[in-house]
Fold:
Amino acid sequence: MATLGTDVQTPRLAAARIGNDVGLLLAKLHAAGSLLNNKALADFGLRERSFSVLTLACSGLEPTQRELADFLSLDPSQVVTLVDDLERRGLVERAQGKQDRRAKIIVSTAEGRKMHTKARAALDAAELDQLTALSGEESQELKRLLRKALWGAAE
Amino acid sequence: MATLGTDVQTPRLAAARIGNDVGLLLAKLHAAGSLLNNKALADFGLRERSFSVLTLACSGLEPTQRELADFLSLDPSQVVTLVDDLERRGLVERAQGKQDRRAKIIVSTAEGRKMHTKARAALDAAELDQLTALSGEESQELKRLLRKALWGAAE
DNA sequence: AAACAATCGTTGACTTTTTCAATGATCCGT
DNA sequence: ACGGATCATTGAAAAAGTCAACGATTGTTT
Structure:
């Protein structure tokens, strides 16, 4: 419920033309958000990325590690590390791919799903915290635009 | 004019709940954008960050390194490295702070401004490329929302 | 005005993250 | 059945981030 972490006041330099560059805006909001998210997830021994993997493992979509790497914009070797950690903690398991036996499908355990439920609540709170300056409709619109910019069309 | 770098098709995993998390959306769009931007700036020997510093040096706002660090969400020591590089290349100079002699004000040289003009054009093209899926109005709205999320109010 | 704590840029050490090539197992096309 | 591609994994190398300490300077307290 506390509101901290994001700039409260418009900094002097935001007046510069660069204050309108998408790249910078994304970098800043992403940086501030990661801080908040990682802080919120720390109680569960998770970070943004391990949480992402856990979420997808709980999604029922049965992602392979390769899909995780592509979707999360990570190197495959980074996914190995993330899954190693989650598996060691009994939150996730590697199952053999169904059509492709090279691939490993990441699925959640019962504990993993319990953990995810709790962590999800914390993350949603953090997200709300990050977007306090926006109304509910604006937040929805922001997400819609981000999704559209990423994978076009949809709705 | 080429359209490459961002996902063209909606990936299977985007259906998961996480496909609506601001954190992930920001991370992905930021990652894809950085790739595009750095590629566009490579011709000038610049990267996203050195370009940001150069832009602010050209802004007339006379930023100190501390302000740059805060604004760009960087550690002060990272700013030292960035300015070192730009200064070595004669694009930027360190001037003594006016009220505070500890601070160094970063100002552009004539060459720096020429370089910036050219690089700016390349970056704007890259940005346009990144947001092809959005209409002009949507792009503006996206920027507005990002700014508002970061520093509230305004308009 | 003298002493004190705080801030600025800088350096260097340290950790974390990213990147990349190589490997065995498996898949696919011919 | 052969050859080339893809998967997860490993390990090494490079890059980026973090952090504490320093001299110089500022502002504050006495």
Summary: The longest strand of chain A covers residues 92-96. The radius of gyration of chain A is 18 Å. Residues 64-66, 76-77, 79-80, 94, 97, 100-104 of chain A lie near DNA strand D (CB under 10 Å from a C1').
